[in-house]
């Protein structure tokens, strides 16, 4: 097995004998100190996380709700309480609904093919290859390229006039695609960037889970005459249920907040001339830092928060359903 | 049967993975190809896959067009400080969660895990307001401080120490009269080293590639690398050889990390998957 964690058996830092307390009975103050140490230390050690999470995680999220019910300008600061006006204003904007559609479209185009491809790659990596470390590292290479860099490279490859991909389409006699003009092609281009960076990473997660499946399951299936494809669908997929749910949830949380790739797909960063690929986070940024309207930006942030939660729950239910169906 | 399966990788698997590998490496290669051409070469033969031999020239133009070296220094500083802090504070908390007994331990740990699913990025508006109040806008501290420790790190080290550090060692250290902090420092920390190294590696990469918050909070004159790349694109978007030379330059440090520690990254992801 390749999945193991090294177990240290030596005593790495056992105190030197000279430092030991020589007497078996310690003075009372010393015992009390030890008790206090053992009681308080754990809280002290976990406190940095909770303090920091409170300050930069929880407080901002709650405070976002406060900002969202006020008139609030980036420069002028807090204004009057306006109730739900920022929400109704945003919901009345066609750009909000456009951004929501774009976000979901890009999310689906990046997560569904990505998970299918990652499962296939994992299955190939799990098939007893020679030089397996080489292949595993190879699929992980894109992970170390920053999303901003990925976006710059792909926006060149997907160039409308002189891009390599349109050139290749031309070679096989197809018309060029307007990757930066048309809605769906721009979503495909941005989803391709996401898939480029994360497919290999997720394949390794699936690979680890596949290796944890007991091999006699496959033996039994083969004796029953099941082929490779059959065992993949009847054993591998159902056994990977928990892992698939984990990957789907994490890619939902990240995917619905996508910013880097659409921001860098052109220079203006508005999500296209007609906002063909403006996502919700891009819209949030635009409201807050271009229009300097923090109230509306916060309203979008809160709605996006709810959308993420709803999607995560739906995904959890759907993936659980699909993968348990496979086992029947 | 097991052995049969192990040796049976089909040619299809190799061909498929070779295609995946080429697709993984091609965009980087393409970036170098364009980044090493001059304007004339791009016009003459825009689709040639052969590099042009002007990379150093383009790279030095990048360095004069944007504060590239400052950005590189900032990225090194921010990523290193964040990685060290995350490792230290996560190991400390992981040690407490995995090996010490205290009231509310289980509940607090569940809370930590639950926070991993919270999209904290959506709190940026108040975070920006707070940073403005503190006068931190444009400073690296505004990028570093919010990242000093995170739920994933705490969870990871809790899992790791739970397995890698036998309870007997803690007990022995206590019997010897060592304080909790002493036990942490000389027993837990050494045992945590392999897991901590992986956590440090992933934190470094995540911080290095982070864009959204630094882009909002940092000034153009004092950027990290991804923010500097955005400036390069905004100013020289017509000159792709310049932009993609910058992309290659900015990618080099992490490519070195990958070459040195790629194996650790692979096993880190696979271990995390099994435990998570």
Features of the shown structure:
heterodimer, A: 328 residues, mainly alpha, MetI-like fold, two-stranded antiparallel sheet, 13 helices, disordered N terminus, B: 276 residues, 14 helices, 77% helix, globular, cell membrane (chain A)
Second rung of CATH, namely the architecture of the domain at 66-236 in chain B: Orthogonal Bundle
Number of helices, where a helix is a run of at least 4 consecutive DSSP H or I residues of chain B? 14
Q: Which class of secondary structure composition applies to the elements of chain A?
A: mainly alpha
What would the CATH topology of the domain at 66-236 in chain B be? MetI-like fold
CATH superfamily of the domain at 66-236 in chain B: MetI-like
CATH architecture of chain A: Orthogonal Bundle
Please report the first level of CATH classification, the CATH class of chain A: Mainly Alpha
Protein name (chain A): ABC transporter permease
Family (chain A): Belongs to the binding-protein-dependent transport system permease family.
InterPro entries (chain A): ABC_transporter_permease (IPR051393), MetI-like (IPR000515), MetI-like_sf (IPR035906)
Domain ABC transmembrane type-1 (chain A): 100-315
Offer a quick outline of the entry.
The complex is a heterodimer of chains A (328) and B (276). Chain A is an all-alpha fold and 328 residues long. Helix content of chain A is 67%, strand content 3%.
């Amino acid at each position: 097995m390749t999945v193991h964690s090294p177990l240290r058996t030596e005593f790495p830092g056992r105190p030197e004998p000279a430092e030991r307390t020589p007497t078996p009975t310690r003075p009372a103050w010393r015992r009390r100190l030890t008790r206090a140490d053992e009681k308080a230390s754990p809280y002290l050690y976990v406190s940095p996380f909770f303090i920091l999470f409170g300050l930069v995680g929880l407080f901002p999220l709650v405070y976002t709700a406060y900002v969202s019910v006020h008139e609030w300008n980036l420069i002028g600061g807090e204004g009057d309480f306006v109730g739900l006006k920022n929400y109704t204003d945003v919901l009345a904007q066609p750009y909000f609904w456009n951004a929501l559609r774009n976000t979901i479209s890009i999310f689906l185009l990046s997560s569904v093919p990505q998970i299918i491809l990652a499962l296939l790659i994992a299955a190939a990596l799990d098939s007893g290859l020679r030089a397996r470390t080489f292949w595993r590292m190879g699929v992980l290479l894109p992970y170390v390229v920053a999303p901003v860099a990925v976006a710059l490279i792909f926006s060149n490859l997907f160039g409308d006039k002189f891009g390599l991909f349109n050139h290749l389409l031309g070679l096989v006699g197809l018309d060029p695609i307007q990757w930066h003009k048309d809605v769906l092609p721009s979503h495909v281009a941005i989803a391709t960037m996401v898939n480029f960076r994360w497919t290999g990473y997720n394949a390794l997660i699936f690979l680890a889970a596949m290796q944890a499946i007991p091999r006699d399951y496959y033996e039994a299936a083969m004796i029953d005459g099941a082929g490779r494809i059959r065992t993949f669908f009847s054993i591998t997929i159902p056994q990977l249920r928990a892992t698939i749910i984990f990957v789907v949830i994490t890619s939902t949380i990240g995917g619905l907040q996508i910013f880097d790739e659409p921001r860098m797909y052109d220079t203006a960063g508005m999500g296209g001339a007609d906002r063909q690929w403006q996502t919700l986070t891009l819209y949030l940024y635009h409201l807050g830092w271009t229009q300097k309207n923090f109230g509306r930006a916060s309203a979008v942030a809160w709605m996006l928060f709810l959308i993420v939660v709803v999607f995560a729950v739906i995904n959890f239910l759907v993936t659980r359903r699909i993968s348990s169906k496979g086992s029947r | 049967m097991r052995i049969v399966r192990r040796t049976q990788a089909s040619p299809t698997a190799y061909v498929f993975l070779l295609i995946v590998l080429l697709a993984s490496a091609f965009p980087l290669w393409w970036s170098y190809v364009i980044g090493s051409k001059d304007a004339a070469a791009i016009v003459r033969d825009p689709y040639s896959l052969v590099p042009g031999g002007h990379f150093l020239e383009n790279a030095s133009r990048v360095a004069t067009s944007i504060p590239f070296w400052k950005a590189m220094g900032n990225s090194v500083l921010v990523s290193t400080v964040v990685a060290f802090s995350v490792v230290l504070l996560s190991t400390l908390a992981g040690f407490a969660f995995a090996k010490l007994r205290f009231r509310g331990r289980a509940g607090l740990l569940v809370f930590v895990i639950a926070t991993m699913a919270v999209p904290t990025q959506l709190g940026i508006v108040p975070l920006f307001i707070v940073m403005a109040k503190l006068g931190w806008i444009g400073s690296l501290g505004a990028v570093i401080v919010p990242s000093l420790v995170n739920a994933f790190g705490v969870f990871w080290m809790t899992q790791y120490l739970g397995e890698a550090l036998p309870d007997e060692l803690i007990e022995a250290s206590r019997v010897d009269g060592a304080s909790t902090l002493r036990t942490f420092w000389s027993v837990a920390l050494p045992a945590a080293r392999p897991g901590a190294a992986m956590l440090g590696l992933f934190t470094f990469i995540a911080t290095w590639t982070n864009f959204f918050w630094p882009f909002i909070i940092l000034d153009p004159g004092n950027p990290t690398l991804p923010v500097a790349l955005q400036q390069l694109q905004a100013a020289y978007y017509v000159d792709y050889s310049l932009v993609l030379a910058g992309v290659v330059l900015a990618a080099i440090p992490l490519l070195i990390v990958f070459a040195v520690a790629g194996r650790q990254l692979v096993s880190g992801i696979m271990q995390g998957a099994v435990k998570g």
